[in-house]
Amino acid sequence: MPQSQESFMFTVGKLDAGMAILLGERAHLIEFPSLLLPPGATTGSIVNISVQRNLAEEKKRDSDFWTLQNEVLQMYGTKSPENPELEVRNVTQTSVTLEWPPLQLATAKLRSLDIYRNRQRLASIPSPLTNTSTKLSGLQIDSEYTFQLVLRTTAGVYPSNLLRIRTHTMTDTSGISVCFGNVQDSVLLENSRMALREMGAKWSDKIQIDTTHFVCTTPAATPSGAQASGSITTAPGVEYQKALQLSIPVVQPHWILACHSAKKMVPIHPYYLGANPPVPATYSRPQSMSQASLSRETQSASPSQQQKHVANRQSMPPQRVATASPPSSSPHSAPGRRFEPTPEEHEEGEGEAAPRGTGHVRKGTMSKNFRFPPPAPPTPPPVPSGAGEGGSPPQAETRPEPQPTPQAQDAEEAALTAVGVVAPSSVEVPPPPPVDKEVAPHSMPDTVDDDVGETEEISLN
């Protein structure tokens, strides 16, 4: 629809600094850019100004505006950052290894990625755009913890799932993650891998974030480097140097066998590289995997089967040799027979004496070669402190020693070697009274200091 142009007349009143003051017919005063005035217009010039609306340009600009808004919506409004998905990679007695997929930020900018333990912030994850795992140490044994990631971006805060983890006990060896280096003994390496497999542990040839131990027998990269001239000629391996940089314990394969034998985590200080590790009782170097599995089947048998196996291997006890001997008056001995001790009893009963006519060895302090000497004249006992009523001390009752028959003496002399005669006491002597400190009853009261008299210093040189 065409619109009529309407013209307005103005008088240029003043020109100053690129601005013109125009005065209208109805005393309107407006400021007008001097660049829009016709050429040659000065102060006092009369100009006509007409104004009209451009609808076609309005539609074009409106269309361009909404096109731009749709592009912004598709780029920034339909996608948003995703919440991290936290997962467990490995758990030990004192550490936890966590991992998550790469962060999806959409078009937002990353501000920080923080790790939380038990609802408390621990630290920020370094290099969160490339790092997708972390290891947290210093935890308590057999304790429960909660872990969570919190992603902060320019588009908002996005927390991850809450993860509940319980650390292992000392008897749980499934958290062991071993990196094998140069192990020169192939049988030892095979037994170590078999032990790790049975414990539920894992191993690799490269150091990873959850590696707990580096196992090797030499730091050299190749076995030939440790065999030339009895010294290491090649440089240490790359994985060995990396283990030292990451403070990963470097142990020998015997530590794995010790953990498998004890069925728990054992200290590692006796098994450091260069130490002389104690060999577990269940490990024998010539054993292969089949031999080791056969020995474990024997060890895993029930107690009744093991006792039966031991009973079958036991031999019969040696028989005692019966020799003719004269009849004895002991009611426990058989007439005309005497039993000699077996070699085992002879070794166990050294320093012991077997009574005549018995079939067993008594344990004591006397030698088995002892024999009674001829009776000695009785020795009068010491006079006790208290005498009888008649003033004479009581006499101890003497009991003569039983005399063996001449036939028994001849048989014993043929079988036994004569030893030195020990003269036993032929009387019962009462024990002497306890010896107290001699103190005169009239010289010391109940509570007095010890009167040692005059003392004299004597040089010890």
What does it look like?
β5 (87-91) and β6 (96-99) form a beta hairpin. The chain is α+β, with helices and mostly antiparallel strands. Among the domains are: 7-52; 87-166, Immunoglobulins (Immunoglobulin-like); 177-297, BRCT domain (Rossmann fold), CATH 3.40.50. The chain has 8 helices and 18 strands. The protein starts with 5 loop residues before the first strand and ends in a 46-residue tail after the last helix. The strands form 5 sheets. Strands 7, 8, 10, 11 and 12 form a 5-stranded antiparallel β-sheet that branches. It has a 4-stranded antiparallel β-sheet with strand order 3-2-1-4, with no helix packed on it. A 4-stranded parallel β-sheet has the order 14-13-15-16, sandwiched between helices.
- Summed over residues and divided by their number, the pLDDT gives a mean of 74
Based on CA atoms alone, the radius of gyration comes out at 54 Å
Number of helices: 8
How many strands appear in the DSSP assignment? 18
The CATH superfamily label of one domain reads BRCT domain
GO molecular function: protein dimerization activity
InterPro entries: BRCT_dom (IPR001357), BRCT_dom_sf (IPR036420), Chs5_N (IPR031673), CHS_Export/Cell_Fusion_Reg (IPR052827), Fn3_2 (IPR031669), FN3_dom (IPR003961), FN3_sf (IPR036116), Ig-like_fold (IPR013783)
Protein name: Fibronectin type-III domain-containing protein
Pfam family, one: CHS5_N
